[in-house]
Amino acid sequence: MRLGGEPESSNFEDRTGQRSSGLGGMGGGGSALGCLLPLVMSRFGLGGVVVLVIGYFLLSSLGGLGGSGGGLLPSNAPQSKAPAGQSTLDPNTRNFLVRVLGSTEQTWSEIFAKSGANYQPASMVVYTGGTQTACGFGQAAAGPFYCPNDGKVYLDPSFANELSQRFGAPGDAALAYVIAHEVGHHIQDLEGTLSKANQLQARASKTEGNAVQVQVELQADCYAGVWAANARDAQGSILEPGDVEEAMRAAEAVGDDTLQKQAQGYVVPDSFTHGSSAQRIAALQRGLKSGNPATCQSL
Ligand SMILES: [Zn+2]
After folding, report:
1. Is the distance from CB of 264 to CB of 191 less than 8 angstroms?
2. What residues have their beta carbon closer than 5 A to ion ligand 1?
């Protein structure tokens, strides 16, 4: 990706180096938080900290972080040499994140303006290990997530290594896709789609609720594609050869069937919460081809 021509986002909060503590996860109750990634948390439900249809698919089934699951990051990555309270964020990573976020702001502002609306951007919080959010205590083990209560995307920068090593999806465009997916949840929040999903899930069976969640996730993938299709600087599209493939590889790697096969050796379609690899690729592709959010299937 050619970054540099877009504005740096100012909606950026660096909490790396901060001490974090919290009891349990956002889902409460010990290891209940399990949606592998990228996930969105609900502002509704018990105590307002319930993950929107908690993925039953637990990291603990992979042996947990630092456990026996192969290819996981060491739990102390990235190495911190800074004194407590001081940022450990690599300047290049910071630069990348504020520019990708800035690009989503530019793109979505333009799209919203076409229908006479004003885009209220999401903020991004980078942290290491765990951090407090308006949706409860967020942990890096769950992957990047969006909290609608505070309108913030949360990301542990070591996720970039995980994406490349554990999920086999290296490259700047792979990480940008994940960020754009989380920003996609923010768009859904602004549109009221997250509230609607919650209402639907409140009166649905577990299987039906999962199907609603899959629709939400696939739309966020499609929105990521819409961003990529429209992301440009003065010279044109910021996508470079290979970027689309990188993003597709990431979308494939985080498909429910692929993750389940890796974790348990078999696939349970009823339990899908994010969509299969093929569905995720197709959704991302739809947004990329059209560049128009209206083509992204909604609930
Ligand atoms: Zn998601």
Report:
1. no
2. 38, 217, 220
State the pLDDT at residue 41: 54
Ligand 1 centre to CA of 186 (Å) is: 10
Contact 295, 283 (CB under 8 A): no
* Residue 268: count of CB within 10 angstroms of its CB: 13
Cβ–Cβ < 8 Å for 274, 214: yes
pTM of the model: 0.82
CB contact set of 52 (below 8 Å; sequence gap of 6+):
39, 40, 41, 42, 45, 194, 197, 198, 201, 213, 216
Q: Containing H/E element for 109?
A: helix 91-114
**Mean pLDDT computed over 107-122:** 97
* C-alpha 234 to ligand 1 mean position (Å): 30
